[in-house]
User: Fold this.
Amino acid sequence: MHKIAASTIDWDAVRGDFPILRERAHGHPLIYLDSAATSQKPRAVIEALRNFYEHENANVHRGLHTLSTRATEAYEKARRRVAEYIGAASADEIVFTRGTTESINLVAQAWGGKFIRQGDVILLTVMEHHSNLVPWQLLAERTGARLRFVPVLDDGTLDLDQLSSLLTPEVKLFAFTHISNSLGTINPVANLCAKAHAVGVLALVDAAQSVGHLPINVRELGCDFLAFSGHKMCGPTGIGALYARAEILDSMPPYHGGGEMIVSVTLEKTTFKKAPHRFEAGTPNVAGAIGLAAAIDYLEQIGRPAIFEHDSQLARYAAERLTELPGTRVFGPTDERGALVGFVMDAAHPHDLTTFADQYGLAMRGGHHCNQPLMRRFGVSGTTRASFYFYNTMEEIDRMIEILQAAVRFFS
Assistant:
């Protein structure tokens, strides 16, 4: 898709596609700045879900009747749509999951359970979400493997000078986030994957905060695994995907056992379907997959380059405006950042600050954001996070600053 400039898009009209943004909270117009936790859904996605349940609802793959055929066609079309969206070589490289967390757990259990042994090393970074940390801790406990971590510098970027000493022959996997969900740091994914491959290490990318905001092509990035969630990119909750290169998926045993993922079962033995279906035991989230495909269609109509440009402008503007507030510390890079900004204020704890803001209709998030090691790295228990998407406006950020100024007065 050719690049569409953000300035040529009628963002007010786009905003009108989201019914929930007309809601009020405590009598005030809703200002939703929590899209890093979950994005809102456009009418096109809501209608896709309604249409499935009204006209196509049936189980997939197993039935020969009309509704089952329709549901199966829509489900597998959604798989192809996801593959196109991230530049996968084949739809067979896409496994539907509940989201980023399950995708990473699938790799840790299925791939890690087969290939990780005592003494092996899994390399992570200090900025990882718990979803890209806890599964590897559990794997290390089971296998006797060890974890290493790329440090984070004061400016919120990775200390890449340490990489050559960390990527040693013992490392079997380098797993890292594309965009930090607390700092907004955009990591150099293609470069990190290339460095991993140069020493024979596989690379896993947590794309939860990036896949709905900027163009991604897994073959250009060079990653071996990529995990993401639908609900952070205008899709339904409870649906996401794992991308893995075909030869890697083919080498992995099943993650769950049950119906749908089998070829034949006797009392003594089971033979399994080829990937990706052997990783999708039980009745899948058919409606979720269809809703995710609808979200992809919607995002592609706008264009991810334009979305990224718009989001970046909002994040930079918010970071600049926050420096006007007394006793405020803003985290993360000062130049290019993802669509969020994390900060602390001397005036109030993040929980108190977000509770105060909510009384004025401002939805932000306060806490450790499933980044407790990163919070300790910066000497705080948590931050307040304002996160943005293409349906947000500069005026909403100005209103956020007004509300935070009122909070300073209130708590002081």
Residues 46-300 form a domain with the Aspartate Aminotransferase; domain 2 fold (CATH 3.40.640.10).
